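User: Hi! I'm working on a homework problem where we have to compare a predicted structure to a textbook description. Could you give me the structure for the chain below?
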Amino acid sequence: MGKYIELTSENFDIAKEGVALVDFWAPWCGPCRMLAPVIDELAADFEGKAKVCKVNTDEVQDLAVEFGIRSIPTILFFKNGEVVEQMVGAQSKQALADKLNSLL
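Assistant: Happy to help. Predicted structure tokens:
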């Protein structure tokens, strides 16, 4: 069973290899908590194909600032180190899976 990758400033380069979904979230954010099980499912579904990652904006504020995160949840999609798409707010599993599949 795949598990999402918890990103920090030290290991963020993981998201820059291949295709990655990065969920910027915080523990106090209701929509973020609603999205959490979807992120877990996507991590399992895309294991070995794409990375599914999370950044706790309370703990890693420098990454939130670096990527201009103004509201959460914000989901960034990376392909080969570049941000190619951004979604703000809780999203359906299908919308996120469709976007990941389009980048593979």
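For your comparison, note the following. The mean pLDDT is 96. The two ends are 20 Å apart (CA to CA). Good luck with the assignment!
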